[in-house]
Amino acid sequence: MCRWLAYSGEPLRASAVILDAKHSLVAQSLDSPLGAETVNGDGFGIGWYPKGAVAGSIPTVFHSVEPAWNDENVRELARSIESPLFFSHVRAAGGPPIQRTNCHPFRWENWLFMHNGFLGEFAKVKRDLTFAVDPSLYTHLKGTTDSEVMFHLAITFGLVDDPVKALTAMVDHIERVGREKGILFPMQGTIAVADGATIWALRYSSQGRSRTLFHSVDIPTIREMYPEAERLSQFGEHAHVVVSEPLNDLPGVFVEVPEGTIAILDKEGYHHEPFRSAA
């Protein structure tokens, strides 16, 4: 459906991973070997927190409906943005129209959210799910995607106070409503959400066959494995990326996030938690 990338660490020029890596996000927009669709040309988005950001800082977002490989603004921005935490996403539209309000990442206050996947037979559940969004958030829904509804459901269910609990409640609700409508596998995908300091990355599907998700190992470990790799010099000791598929083919640099897992990336590094819906 889509490809996405999340970075956290020392401030990094976004082009290092969006443009310059061997299998960068823009390269994946043209050729995505592990994706459900090979080409992801229905829009691009980037959301970034400012250099020197403090807790609660509001991220900036840019969206374009142009294919990422053909948009000069993408290249200009990626080479100019230097950020300690940013999200980027290339879209393959699965039904909702190609328009800026449907491009990821989505923003609410200091939170960013993006998704790769779909809700099964979304048209059947759209009304019920949308009406479950807190009324105070309803006017913030600008687009027509299932992803944006998911984000606002997570906020409704307490994302600010406990992201893991809120994401669990969101999936439980989606699966309950979907199965009431006779949908066998209501939920599919990988999700990234961030508050400016921590990234939560979820891999889950009702069928147990989720879209791919990987994260990098620690930079000191990579430097030990590849001491002559000059490109590593641009990354700080705490640089990490979470990606739909690896940015290079170097063995050991990326590890796959297991099915039914939420990977949490904070200042201490990664830790994984099992993710199960109670539905």
Automatic annotation (TrEMBL):
| Domain Glutamine amidotransferase type-2: from-to ranges | 2-279
Q: Which GO terms describe its molecular function?
A: hydrolase activity; transferase activity
Quote the Gene3D superfamilies the UniProt record gives: Glutamine Phosphoribosylpyrophosphate, subunit 1, domain 1
- PROSITE patterns in alphabetical order: GATASE_TYPE_2
Sorted keywords for this record are: Glutamine amidotransferase, Hydrolase, Transferase
Q: Which PANTHER family match?
A: GLUTAMINE AMIDOTRANSFERASE DUG3-RELATED (PTHR43187:SF1)
Write down what this protein is called. Glutamine amidotransferase
